[in-house]
Amino acid sequence: MSHWVNVPLADYEGHMSASGVEQLAPLADLFRQALVQTNPESVAILGIAGGNGLEHINPATTTRTVGIDINAEYLEVVAQRHPSLQALELHHHDLAEKPIEIPPVDLVHAALVFEHAGTGQCLENAIKLLSPTAHLSVVLQLPSDQQTGVAPTPYPSIQSLKETFQHIDPAWLVATLTPRGLHLKHETRHPLPSGKAFWHGIFKQ
């Protein structure tokens, strides 16, 4: 069972907002950029947590939003925070362990998901969710000499995630997805205040 089921949302959001981490706002902006570039009618967010970035969805354009997470309490908070978001589907699912059966979408967004859930079943689920002309948006945390994969903050539950966190090489991801018919159309690197950086890649079928 994933450690994520034992991480309160307040701990996760506190950690991600803490000085020296400060990742929530950049992650929300990268989701916004993915929406702008792909203009999807439907979107699925893998590891939706508390719904960071959902405010950037234009319901006039994106008429179906799917949120998936292993922590059912996170999904309850998303529903409470975004009551006006029409056609919001929330699915309690372990992406790392079980195949998913959800109608496909135009955009799948996976931000800092594969580092925790791996690139086995989770990656297969991401690909399975893609419609024939869909985009896959992936945000990876790049290795840093200045900080470990999970930064130290005053949230003990977050520190338990160190045991399973693994960096994913963007070049490996590109080489893995290309033979599957997913071609890298856009990539950017986003430095963070901590000295870390995000890599953002958008793939198209």
Structure notes:
The structure is a single chain. The chain is α/β, with parallel strands linked by helices. The chain has one domain: 3-Layer(aba) Sandwich (Rossmann fold). The chain is 28% helix and 26% strand. The protein has seven helices and seven strands, in the order ααββαββααβααββ. It has helices at residues 9-17, 24-38, 72-81, 114-117, 121-128, 156-159, 170-177, and strands spanning 42-46, 64-69, 88-92, 105-111, 130-142, 183-191, 197-204. Strands 3-2-1-4-5-7-6 form a seven-stranded mixed β-sheet, sandwiched between helices. Strand 2, helix 3 (72-81) and strand 3 form a beta-alpha-beta unit.
Q: Outline of this structure?
A:
With 205 residues, this protein is α/β, with parallel strands linked by helices.
Provide the β-strand percentage band: 25-35%
The strand order across the widest sheet is: 3-2-1-4-5-7-6
CATH topology descriptor:
Rossmann fold
Unreliable sequence segments: none
Tell me the number of strands: 7
In total, the number of domains comes to: 1
| The named CATH superfamily | Vaccinia Virus protein VP39
Count of runs of 4 or more consecutive helical residues = 7
- Helix/strand/pairing class, anyone? alpha/beta
